[in-house]
Amino acid sequence: MKYKNSPIYVALLVSVSNFSSAETTAPAMPLSSLAERVEVGEIEVPHIKTDEEVEAEEEFARLQAETKAEVARLSAEAVVEAARIKELAASEKDAEEKIEQVKEMALAVRVTEDKSRESEVEAAMAEAKAKSLRVIADKDAELAKKAAGDNVIALNDAELAITRAKGAGSKLFDNIKVGSEEEEEEGVKGGMSVAESIVTVEHDEVSKSYRVEKGGSLSLISVQAYGRAGYWRILKLHNGVSPEKLKLGQKVKAPDLKWLMADSGLTKVFPVACRDLLESRRLFMELEGDLDSSKKSDSVMSAEEISKKMNKAEDLMRNSRKLFMKRRSGVKGSPNSVAQQLFVASNKMAEVVKGKKDIFSVRGLVHEHISNSIVYSVLWAKDGFN
């Protein structure tokens, strides 16, 4: 062994030898025998650490503690980092969901913009169409006005010619009546003047009351009262209210049309004209119902039946117009505005039968003009037929 000659080894052997001699009475062993026994492991020699070994062990323990602390620190950081990564993953998922939501919102915005552009195009087309209709209406009004004037002249000339012919002894016109004279003359009886007949007319009001609801208008009340929106001017006339000044909950009276014309004194002077006007309106509304029903069911009216009913309505309308325009004593004014409205109404009726485009708007115009003719004639009567 390489340490046999070291002083420490020798000292150990000596101490062991002394120890053995003190414990037993056996003779002391030689150093070589002790060394051999130590070498083979029979005798255990306590290890005495050197300063270097102690320092080495302390350094190892310190490093081992530092290593454990570092491992613990790194483990804690790993846990924190794992939690952070998990949080980032959740945030990334939320971000992806929000991105999808934003994409959906952007798509909805694009769809809305497309619809808005389509609505703008439709609005522009509707405006152009409205302008075109206004131009046509203005032309129709001019033609109607001229035709009304021509009609007055023609009727007057016809009556004058018949009177002259009869005065000259002609029998040709004995059975011919212009303007249903006999029937119309029943309007003023007993030698009363037109003014007197107006004053003596008294009728109990016949009307229905309606309340203005949210979003309501005179047109909507007109639909409830008269079945069509076009009679709102009658509501305006009777209630003395403007459409734009309606108030929520306001009471609006819808007068019976027959009562309205009688109350103004119009029926007293022009009974047949009023009767034919209202009957023409009734027939036209009946025809509208027939046309709508024929589109929804198999029982379609024949073109001949439709034409026959419409011709009757038109004839009544034209006769009413003719009677209103007939000159009579006591009637100072000439209801050109009434005649113009009835003229246009009868022409629009003919368009409905012919099945022209925008038939629903044409039907609405018929009722607009009938309403106007009633309003103008009532105002005319209340003003003393001036």
What does this structure look like?
There is one protein chain. α3 crosses α12, α6 crosses α7 and α11 packs antiparallel against α12. The chain is mainly α and 386 residues long. The chain is rod-shaped and about 195 Å long. It starts with 6 loop residues before the first helix and ends with a helix. The chain folds into two domains: 34 residues, no CATH class; 241 residues, no CATH class. Helix content is 71%, strand content 3%.
Short description:
This protein is mainly alpha-helical. The chain has 13 helices and two strands.
Instruction: For the largest sheet, list the strands in their spatial order.
Output: 1-2
* Helix count from the secondary structure assignment: 13
The averaged pLDDT comes out at: 77
Q: What is the count of β-strands?
A: 2
What is the first-to-last residue Cα distance?
A: 157 Å
**Count of discrete domains:** 2
Summarize the main sheet: 2 strands, antiparallel
Give, in order, the helices and strands.
Answer: HHHHHEHHEHHHHHH
The residue fraction in helices comes out at over 70%
Large-scale geometry: rod-shaped
The parts where pLDDT drops under 50 for at least 5 residues are 20-24, 176-203
Structural class: mainly alpha
Strand proportion, as a percent range, falls in under 5%
Radius of gyration: 58 Å
